[in-house]
Amino acid sequence: MIAGLARARAFWRENVAGTLTALVRPPDYTRSLAQLAERQGSGLFADTVRDPGYESQLGQLHHVQADMRRVLDLVATKRQPVVIFVDDLDRCSPSTVAQVIEAINLFLAGQFPNCVFVVAMEPEMIAAHIEVAYQPLVEALTEDDYWGEVRTLGWRFLDKIIQLPISLPALRSDQANEFLGATLVDRFRPATTGQNDDAVDEHEVSRIADGIRRRGPSIADISDAAAAVQRDRQGMPPTGGFSPETRAAMRRELRRRLRPNDPEVAEVVAAAAGRLGKNPREIKRFVNVFRFYAVVRQERITAGLPAPDTLAEVAKLALLAIRWPHLRAALGRQIGATERDTVLSLLEAPVAELPEDADWAARKEALRAALVDAKVPDRLRANLLASDDLCKLLASGPAIGTTAAIFL
């Protein structure tokens, strides 16, 4: 447009100058542009320039997406994302489940950044719903034997959507009674003043964290170092429990250590790399789950509850969560008199009648017989023994059967 105006002005000066200037007034470009802008603002510009009507053809979905982007740009940041809770998804129809999963995938694909989804569900039900919704695709992949394992299309979908799988342990009978009592008490408890009962002295937290760091503990021994620092500074023995300041210092030190460049974390990840696939997403999910389980472990130790002894055990639990999520409930299934008598502990236990140098085929057959004796259903038994990688992982140390139930 500017080039056109320049050519018009040159034509006027060179060809029209002279006697005609008295008869014809040169155009006022500035005024013309102002009038054009005024006409555009008043809606008259649409009569001058043809409008192909693109906006009217965009559809409702485009407008919804545009509104979502505007809302997220206003309220969400990278440090403070919008957290969206999705509950009871497993109660929906297969088509609804598929639509919700596809909608969540739009957010995860980057079109709507700074969003976090927390989905409460029974993964077995959701995986089954997905397979019903995509039945033709399931049949096509089954005919080609694409997977090579019992992990189905539904579980593959969940692997790509769920970045940090968290399994809530079932309530024990004593915990159920405690929960019932606490629920009754909470219903009649007067409202609090809103003050934070866990307020801590930040200066004391920093001093305790420095004391823990100076002792140079391993990640697994942070709680022991914290107990020693607390005893030295506050005169409170470990049996008396950790003070709020000590707990805060432990969390701070653990958060500092659980970084990819920490030697211990790097060693654990390197050891697990051989059992992970070459998919970068799977490796990243393993690191995230491992770090989360490490935090859960320390919190349980702080509360005096059973927890894995070493980071190697934590890594083994994280591997189960990432590679065999469809078998977690089966591995945690109780098959004996106590809660520690699970399918997992059975698969980890050495088979007494086998020599140490027995080949893998003989050991696998012995495991099958042990599962039969434990009355594990046929289909579940076949799924457990379908993956040699799983059986070999459980046969290797360290054993996690005694503490795995809280993570499965």
Automatic annotation (TrEMBL):
<dbReference type="Pfam" id="PF07693">
    <property type="entry name" value="KAP_NTPase"/>
</dbReference>
<dbReference type="InterPro" id="IPR052754">
    <property type="entry name" value="NTPase_KAP_P-loop"/>
</dbReference>
<feature type="domain" description="KAP NTPase">
    <location>
        <begin position="64"/>
        <end position="291"/>
    </location>
</feature>
<dbReference type="InterPro" id="IPR011646">
    <property type="entry name" value="KAP_P-loop"/>
</dbReference>
<protein>
    <recommendedName>
        <fullName>KAP NTPase domain-containing protein</fullName>
    </recommendedName>
</protein>
<dbReference type="InterPro" id="IPR027417">
    <property type="entry name" value="P-loop_NTPase"/>
</dbReference>
